[in-house]
User: What shape does this take?
Amino acid sequence: MEKIEELPSPSESLQRQRFRKQRSKSDYLRARSLHGPSPTTTFGPKACIQKNPASIMHVQDPLSQRLTWNKPPLSVLIIKKVHESSVVQPFMDLVTWLVQEKRMVVYVEVSTLEDEMIADDSGFQPIKQKLNTFKEGTEDLSGRVDFIICLGGDGTLLWASSLFQGSVPPVMAFHMGSLGFLTPFEFDNFKSQVNHVLEGHAALTLRSRLKCVITDAECDTHINSTEKPKKIQVLNEVVIDRGPSPYLCHIDLYLEGRHVTSVQGDGLIVSTPTGSTAYAVAAGASMVHPNVPAIMVTPICPHSLSFRPIVVPAGVEIKVMVSPESRGSAWVSLDGRNRREIKVGDSVRITTSEFPVPSICQNDQISDWFDSLAECLHWNVRRPQRAFNNNGANGREKDDSDCGVEA
Assistant: This one.
């Protein structure tokens, strides 16, 4: 016979309510989801994700993330790989087509037009006069750029991310660099591909970023200090290492205010899923698909055989501090830039940003990622094992490949 659970008496219910009220606030460690903040679904002034009525609790199926435009895009930012002569002619062809045929407002960096091959091209001068220029750190492009086109390698996408510390317009990246893990498009038929994107027919991969705040011990101790620490958006990773010091890097790692462990080694990598295939994978981390809500924590040459890389939920806050017992300082770099020294008492706080980078897919989120693994990293490339021949069909004879001998 099925046992029926008895309901608590009114007095017992009252006791439970009093007990809940008496519990300290520390028992409720989280007020936000461990999955991290819901990413913004608007990118720049005119782009957004196509609404999906099947989404639940603001969490969409990654395969349903499609680009759509609220209004026709009119402005575009072109990022060109520097010190690369092979990119100059494609850059001029793309800009000329966008200005003359698409009638778009084109933004480029001042340093791009200072390239000798571009400056000395007389045929490009009429187009050059119509371009809008900017310098990093002096002008805010937010709200002025509808989408971004990158010509080069993965570094151009990282550079584009650094230019937008808030909402990022959709990014279309053409592979014209060395590796091209984040640049799925080929430039041969750029007109049809750009037209396809302008019409809103494209899948998006929302590449999560890390929000990083570096706080000096001196600023923390000054209660009346009005200077707020700067928040920096990071696409790949935050690296804390020993720098030029000959001593071990000795840093303390905190998750949600709790001391988790002390790191002794060459340093620590805190990376996004996008960054898991960069420095982190070289240090032994797993490769994680960019749609997975997570943060990777990877030690660099730890002085402990048991210190393995870990993956934590995207919503946690990570804090890294130089240990008071450290023999020297440490150095922090964000996506390979903004490198600075941190000393005892300084802290680096990291969590998932609500502003991802909407990377335009050539095919879809799954195909593009596995194609990059195969083509760029040669993931699981191996000569196939030969099948048994007729004589060894019953397994009585050894095949050469089973003995470690390649035929």
In short: The chain has ten helices and 21 strands.
